[in-house]
Design brief:
Blueprint: E1 11-16, E2 25-29, E3 32-38, H1 53-67, E4 75-78, E5 85-89, E6 100-104, E7 113-120, E8 126-132, H2 135-147, E9 157-159, E10 165-167, H3 194-206, H4 210-215, H5 221-237
Antiparallel strand pairs: 1-2, 2-3, 3-5, 4-5, 6-8, 7-8, 9-10
Helix pairs in contact: 3-5
Amino acid sequence: MPPPDLEAGELTLTGRLTTASNATFLGSIEGVAVVYKPIMGEHPLWDFADGTLAHREIAAYLVSEALGWNVVPRTWLRDGPMGEGMVQLWQHADPAQNAVDLVASTAVPGVGWRPVFEGRDEHERMVTLIHEDTPTLRRMAVFDVIVNNADRKGDHVLAMPDGHRHGVDHGLTFHVDHKLRTVLWGWLGDALSADELHGIDRVRTGLSGELGATLADLLSTAEIAALSARCDRLRTAERFPAPSGQMPAVPWPLF
């Protein structure tokens, strides 16, 4: 049996994610489960150009591939029942695993976890936002800095059964202004590893070649220049950055 034609095979809708802010559908292409986000279903935003979110999701996947860390599941642009849109391979996450969590402040685990911040819940109890302290999640945090991710919610981190972590929902990326909003602040100020630095180098080198040429069809010239500048700043600092600017440092809601 030939492999499924994900680029041109019939995309059949099987459901809709009603909690998503933009039109997001579950679908199938020749038996392969996918997520489909049509461009016509994107809601206008004050700070991102209309009709560009799908292109930013594709660009995020390409940067993930250049890093070599498999942060973003395979993502591509194609036609569908509601017109052109982003299509991404569906990931069967493990519901028993939580890479990001909100716990009572008296129950924060030690080894293997990083606290982000402390606050109060709706019952005035002290709670702490935490995330795993793993190389896989660190790579996602580096990726978020590079792509300027404005929406890394806890539920946008998919915990896979084998321990890998995928990041999804990357429509709010690549803005020319600083927009980084993430729940993954646990490594603030920590030195980047050699592997992480090499990944940044691969992206920076790629921007002068095939990666840059491909991104030119998805992002503006200014956005690609800003991406390059973020790589350079992170490579020079060799450390996880701190929050900056007037925007909130974390998305809302957190999950």
